[in-house]
Amino acid sequence: MNLVDYLRISLIDRCNFQCQYCMPEGAEIDYILQQNLLTLDELLTLLREVFIPVGFTRFRLTGGEPLLRPGVVELVKQINAFPETKDVAMTTNGFLLAGMAEDLYKAGLRRINISLDSLDPDIFDQIIGNRGRSRWQQVWEGIQAAYEVGFNPLKLNVVVIPGVNDHEVLELAKLTIERQWHVRFIEFMPIGNNDLFADRGWISSEELRQQIREKWGLETAQVRGNGPADVFQIPGAKGTLGFISQMSECFCDRCNRMRLSADGWLRPCLLNETGQIDLKTPLRQNVTFEELREQVNNLLTIKPDINFKQRDSGTTGNYSRTMSQIGG
Ligand SMILES: Nc1nc2c(ncn2[C@@H]2O[C@H](COP(=O)(O)OP(=O)(O)OP(=O)(O)O)[C@@H](O)[C@H]2O)c(=O)[nH]1
Ligand SMILES: C[S@@+](CC[C@H](N)C(=O)[O-])C[C@H]1O[C@@H](n2cnc3c(N)ncnc32)[C@H](O)[C@@H]1O
Ligand code: SF4
Ligand code: SF4
């Protein structure tokens, strides 16, 4: 059985973007009420008393947009201070990053993944649902700031949507030649916007690799990560290219993670909703930590069954929670 030691923690279900593929404008989303959000103290208690004792040592902060959560810098510091912590990372849209990168780095964050779906500000704004002042430049500045502060590896996440940004794959891949950045192409998943998915579908990673191979060649590479990306490199490039292929491949046999939502639900698998448990309610009812650990341990035991048995039903697109609520 695979070691499950990586917890993706959604800090907030709200976001300052409304990406077409995640939480499109007009989507009816039931936001978590303030009183139902895990407080940062509750989250730290769960980590210290429950998750770390059952074996979790790697943590990724995500959302919604994690940089919108008040106290996020202090939280990074506290998670980093647990002696058992091996890795604290974050996935962000980068919009607020320029002003926070240095504090996050000083707090102990070392790995950061930033979403950047386009190098064209107009296409970018179209994807993130922006109707006002363009947001691209500020995200770009956030990426530069993170790089200058020293985040390494620094990864850029691109969800490839046919007919929207797939023509930019070579331009995005080219970023890795001169810079030590890691660009990852993610196959579009039917969580968040079924209509767009039905209309556009997804492009397989192999098809993208073929384009890149024809232009520059491509070889396998290594970069530090805990995730499902297959990593390649343009020969001689400073950075790498990752491919996250959840639609065309099944990497569930190497699954090492669970997800904790901002309202305290623990979810064993991204692609289906089986087996989720509520940890916030029993925590607030003072159920013993021992009992909570037992519940999480039970879920760890049945996780492999949930992963494999339920995977197909998970790609049909029936979800009660969007990606912004799950944390990706
Ligand atoms: N199906 C599936 N997709 C995943 C899983 N983990 C990550 N992804 C996809 O990969 C995207 C990017 O993930 P990131 O938040 O950057 O994290 P990661 O790839 O695990 O990070 P690293 O540790 O840096 O490799 C997510 O939004 C999902 O689309 C997973 O366990 N299952
Ligand atoms: C839900 S977001 C949360 C963190 C942050 N707001 C961000 O965008 O990086 C995490 C990741 O999920 C990815 N994502 C969201 N919806 C997706 C979908 N339908 N298919 C594939 N990836 C998706 C995003 O591109 C992002 O890299
Ligand atoms: S992908 Fe990230 S930035 Fe885009 S809407 Fe979802 S949570 Fe927000
Ligand atoms: S689909 Fe589920 S089991 Fe498969 S890798 Fe993702 S989270 Fe793990």
Automatic annotation (TrEMBL):
Enzyme category, top tier: lyase
GO molecular function terms noted in the UniProt entry: 4 iron, 4 sulfur cluster binding; cyclic pyranopterin monophosphate synthase activity; GTP 3',8'-cyclase activity; GTP binding; metal ion binding; S-adenosyl-L-methionine binding
Reaction catalyzed: GTP + AH2 + S-adenosyl-L-methionine = (8S)-3',8-cyclo-7,8-dihydroguanosine 5'-triphosphate + 5'-deoxyadenosine + L-methionine + A + H(+)
Residues that coordinate or bind [4Fe-4S] cluster 2: 252, 255, 269
PROSITE patterns: MOAA_NIFB_PQQE, RADICAL_SAM
Keywords: 4Fe-4S, GTP-binding, Iron, Iron-sulfur, Lyase, Metal-binding, Molybdenum cofactor biosynthesis, Nucleotide-binding, S-adenosyl-L-methionine
Pathway: Cofactor biosynthesis; molybdopterin biosynthesis
Record SUPFAM superfamilies: Radical SAM enzymes
Record text on subunit structure and interactions: Monomer and homodimer.
Protein name: GTP 3',8-cyclase
Organism: Planktothrix tepida PCC 9214
This protein's encoding gene: moaA
